[in-house]
Design brief:
The structure is a single chain. The chain is an all-alpha fold. The protein has 14 helices and two strands, in the order ααααααααβαααααβα. It has a two-stranded antiparallel ribbon. Helix 7 crosses helix 9. It is globular, with a radius of gyration of 21 Å.
Length: 358
């Protein structure tokens, strides 16, 4: 029973949590576009998201500190690394939302597939991932990442014939389709460059977060101070950059308020918390491997909830993503199983106390 519980905690729960987070993250870009189309400032969107997440995580903090008395004390190195996390997170969001303003959710989705490859390279460089060209586990992770990226690109770039026609709805807006070009500004070079900057910074955020959570294994505390640093950094910078458009900071009781609440609670808050916990449990490469899945989720959501047509490219790309995604998970699980067997053989007397990974 204990071994079954450990397996569920280390394998089933992280998988379900990451899929759920990717589902909640799908709507962020859509809501952002809708809010900015109504004149809301994307600078304000970033600041309010950080601030709301900080307030959300502040509530359980006294209880967490009470339960976590055995944690090491804060030191200058840890504080500086958390401040670096806040800086990286803010710059990544600033670049990504500005790039999205110049381009479209389609390009944003396509470039998000840079994250697994960059994360794997950085994890190998910092010796957080073992690589052995002759190992089936390593080959599965590398090939699975490439296949997932290929499948995601097919979903975005190839439509093919229509399998299910669009359902007409009088309430459907042309701006809410996640997979269509909806930006009035088409400065693709600058926008693509800014989006690429975000998806280069996100793997760096994963690596730094892995280092922080290794020294201070309390996810809620770390994410709270990360959001607090993000708020303190973003507020003066965004106000300075957007001082001529203070009217765009006014929160109206419409899609603007919904976008801020959604982003602050689910994206900047809950998503960061789940990612930090997942990094602690499974590592940065496992977390980043779920990014291509969001493309298939977005396509499925657009068909189910928005009444958009279902194209052959979405089905083919979704199948390819699933194959690549499963290969990455298999490689990671097989690697952990090998480590478990090796540790059991080296310490046969304590085998019962070892966690079951597969």
């Amino acid at each position: 029973m204990a071994e079954s519980g450990r397996y569920c905690y280390r394998e089933v729960v992280p998988f379900c949590a990451m899929v759920a987070v990717e589902c909640t993250n799908v709507g962020v870009n859509v809501l952002f576009k809708q809010a900015t189309l109504k004149g809301f400032s994307y600078y304000a969107f970033i600041v309010y998201s950080f601030a709301l997440s900080t307030l959300f995580l502040l509530l359980p903090l006294p209880f967490v500190f009470r339960w976590s008395r055995g944690l090491p004390p804060f030191n200058v190195s840890l504080i500086l690394r958390i401040f670096l996390l806040g800086t990286i997170g803010f710059v990544a969001q600033l670049s990504g939302y500005k790039g999205l303003e110049y381009t479209s959710p389609t390009l944003f989705s396509a470039l998000s597939n840079l994250i697994p490859a960059f994360t794997f390279i950085l994890a190998v460089f910092f010796r957080m991932e073992k690589i052995s060209p002759k190992s089936w586990s390593t080959q599965a992770k590398i090939l699975g990442s490439l296949v997932s990226i290929l499948g995601a690109l097919i979903v975005v770039l190839y439509k093919g014939p229509t399998l299910i026609s669009a359902s007409s709805s009088p309430h459907q807006s042309p701006h809410v389709d996640f997979l269509k070009d909806s930006s009035p500004q088409q400065n693709w070079v600058l926008g693509g460059f800014l989006i690429a900057i975000e998806f280069i910074l996100v793997p760096i955020w994963y690596i730094v977060q892995t280092n922080v959570i290794k020294d201070y294994p309390a996810e809620i505390i770390v994410v709270f101070f990360y959001n607090l640093c993000g708020t303190l950094i973003s507020a003066p910078v965004c106000l300075l950059l957007d001082e001529s458009n203070l009217s765009g900071w006014i929160i109206k009781p419409d899609i603007t308020l919904v976008a801020i609440l959604y982003s602050g609670f689910f994206c900047t808050g809950l998503s960061s918390l789940v990612h930090t916990w997942g990094i602690h449990i499974k590592g940065p490469v496992y977390i980043s491997s779920f990014k291509p899945v969001s493309i298939a989720i977005a396509a499925a959501f657009s068909v189910i909830f928005l009444g958009d047509p279902l194209y052959l490219g979405i089905v083919v790309g979704g199948v390819i993503i699933s194959i690549g995604f499963y290969a990455v998970l298999w490689g990671k699980a097989n690697e952990e199983l090998s480590e478990y067997i090796d540790s059991s053989q080296s310490q046969p007397t304590s085998k019962v106390n070892q966690p079951l990974l597969l």
